[in-house]
Each structure stands twice: as structure tokens, then as C-alpha cells.
Amino acid sequence: MRTQPNDRAVLLGTYILENQTTVRAAAQHFGISKSTVHKDVSERLPDLRPELARAVHAVLLRNKEERHIRGGLATKRKYALLAQARRGFSQDDQN
What we know:
Blueprint lengths: L4 H15 L3 H8 L3 H15 L1 H45 L1
Helix pairs in contact: 1-3, 1-4, 2-3, 3-4
């Protein structure tokens, strides 16, 4: 993503707001680092578009409050897949 930092900040803020996404997802979508996304939306964006910055900040706060839930669900999926793989191995051994 080769754009000017101020343009990039507005683009990132708009993307995060429209998609209700995380910093990590925005960084992956645009092919830049999480640090760059965070700096753009927390430092540059308030000077450029204060209303957008407040809305993006609200999305990021909600994501922060929910991250423990997403982490728990990811762990649950991980162990469910491991259990499924173990059951598959034991069935292969019996045949």
C-alpha cells in the first residue's frame, strides 16, 4: 500500500469503521504492519478527521473488550480439532 500517511490514515479508519474489524485484520487486508495501522488511526486520524477517529476508537475499544472471548473460542476450536484428530487416528488403528 503506497499512499501518503494522511490518506492512509483516513482509508484505514474508514475500513475499520465500515467492517467493524480489528487492527490486525485491517493490517492484513492492506498488507501493512499492525503498528502502522495503530499509529495511523490513533495519532494521525484525530488531527485529520476527529469524528471518524472517535468512531474508530469506539470500534477498537469494543474489540479490546471482546478479545478474551475470541481467544477462548479459538482455544476451544483448537482442542476440538485435536480431539477429532485423535479419534481419527484411533479409528485408523482399529481398521
